[in-house]
Write a structure and sequence with these properties.
This protein is an all-alpha fold. The protein has a domain of 131 residues: Tetracycline Repressor, domain 2. The chain has nine helices and no strands. Helix 5 packs across helix 7.
Amino acid sequence: MSETTDKRAETIELAMELFWRQGYADTSMAQIVKETGLNRYALYSMFEDKRALFLASLAHYFEQCSCVFQPIIADTSIPPLDRVRLSMKTWVAMQEARRNGCLMCQVAVDQAQEDPAIAEAVDGYFTQILGMIAIPLQEAADLLNPNLTPETAAQLIFDCEMSIGTHARAGASHDTLMRIADVTMAALTAPGVTWNELPVRVPDDYS
């Protein structure tokens, strides 16, 4: 990476953290300048405006999450329902590590309704997430609750993870967060279906 590329990546990371803590509307360019250590000229030479930096921050957040979950989803050496369960437990662990909730979910509620470009970006990320969740569910279709398709089961898990993020940000205990995951797993599987509990490892940089 060049020095310029490194600085851009660092700026996006720092801005993402600021947007995540404070929200888009409550984060000023003056705060971003202070947080990143860049002057306004340097900042605007990288990003057209605050909105452009915010969209870059959302893309960075999605990439971070994808780097955690895609390897789990893609690991066909693990039975599909075990992958689903491990993904949910990993999400719980990540939320406990940060207690910031899900940035994408916050944006969907707070900002997407006011900005079509942000809404389009969030919808696109959500569609990709649902598609990722559906992969192991399609493999385990015969083990699902007969009232659910892999796609509706994926939506159930997605809604569960939004709920876990919200509860984690409000300070919910580990038992409460896991109870949400447990109820969701029970709801999406057929009676008598079980799964294995695999160990979770939260990425070192997610703390």
